[in-house]
Structure formats: C-alpha cells, structure tokens
C-alpha cells in the first residue's frame, strides 16, 4: 500500500483504515501483528500531524506499507519539522499513568512494539523505517 | 470500528462502564464526554469499574483518557478498577506500566472479592 496524505487528522484515520484492510487481506499476518502495525502507524501519524507543523502550514506524509513473506515493513516520509526519536529519553513510567504528566507515550509505544525502528532526516524531511513481526511468520515456507 | 460505551450505576458506591471497540485518537473525546456524565454518579470514595472485555484496541490517546479518569476518581477519594483487558490492551498496559497490577482483574468474581476485602477492612473494629 502506497499512499500520500495531507497532514490532517481525518486523513490519518482514513489511512489507518486502508492499512488495516491491506493487512487483513494478507492472510499470513495474524491479529496481533495487525494490531501492532496499526498502533505504531497511529502513534507516528498522529504525532506528525500534531507536532510536525507548528506553523500550521500544509504538508504531506507518504506511507509505504509492504507485506513480505517474512515480515511487515513500514516506511513513513513527511515534510514536517525534524523529530529525533533517539534524542528523547524514555518516558518516566512510575507504574501508574495517573501519577505522571501526559506526553511521550506514543513514541515510546512505537519504539517498543516495532522490531526495528530507523530514523533519518534528509533534505525532504523525516524518514522512519520500521519492521514488524518477524517471529509471526515462522511457519511460512 | 468505533467505540461503544454503556454504563450502569445500580448503587451510588459503584458504577460499571463497558467499553467496546477502540479507544484511540479517533474516539477518546467521545469517551471523555461520556465519562463526564458517569463520574459524578459515583459517590465520593466509591468505585468505578471499567469492563474492558470487549475493548479490542487502545492507543496512547486512550491511555491519556484513562489516566485522566483515574486522577478524577482519585481526587474524589474513589478508585478505578479495570476488568478483563484483552491481549492488545494488556500488551499496551504492560509496556507503559499504565496501572498498578493490583487494580486489574481477570473476572468479576475476583474484583468483587477485592472490594469485599476492602469493605471488611473499613468496617472491621479498629480498622
């Protein structure tokens, strides 16, 4: 699935729906893997739309979801401001979210759930490449 | 898939809210709105039970709503207990250490037992 969406929340939700349908059609991708990809996609896209364009300008996000026999790959490119996921310290997790300020959880979830998470900043913007669920496809030939 | 919310407050000391579907960036505001009507129904010091048996999915947006709700209940000296989270929800709770393990229950029986225990402690002589 390759898709370019504007940096608006309603378009994020449409993209999530399409990604889900795409994953569902791939019968070797199990429910747990689908939920993982959906969650990471939601967290990163919502993050980009909410924080990537503080000046309010129009932008776009390219989504490339590749379902391979051995894993799922996701590549996101956007033209928002730089965000360095490696530069963020892991959030403070006191054992009860009611004890902490909100924020930082989405990125922490994305980094924890994806098997690999590679960020780079190029002349056109941010690029994140993620791999998912290699263990889920062990039964594939 | 969206979110369905149903609540029952048979007694002022305890309300139960059933969530079905997804609690995410698309639905958390709906949840926050619904809970604004429910929390005042619970007595100060009462218990709010969130039945998560049919909640398929939660994201950080949903986690923030849950945290907010738990804070509001705590400010009223109440407690929020979570019932039967499903695999995706459990996984997310585990990663972010969302709630104390002691406040998550696998069944209504387990939860009732816990509340009975607290009740006994409160009514015990000298306790």
UniProtKB/TrEMBL annotation, chain A:
Pfam families on file: HATPase_c_2
GO molecular function (one): ATP binding
Species the sequence originates in: Luteibacter sahnii
Highest taxon in the source lineage: Bacteria
Protein name: ATP-binding protein
Keyword Transferase: yes
Assigned keywords, A-Z: ATP-binding, Kinase, Nucleotide-binding, Serine/threonine-protein kinase, Transferase
InterPro entries to which the protein is assigned, alphabetical: Anti-sigma-factor_SerPK, HATPase_C_sf, HATPase_dom
SUPFAM superfamilies hit by this protein: ATPase domain of HSP90 chaperone/DNA topoisomerase II/histidine kinase
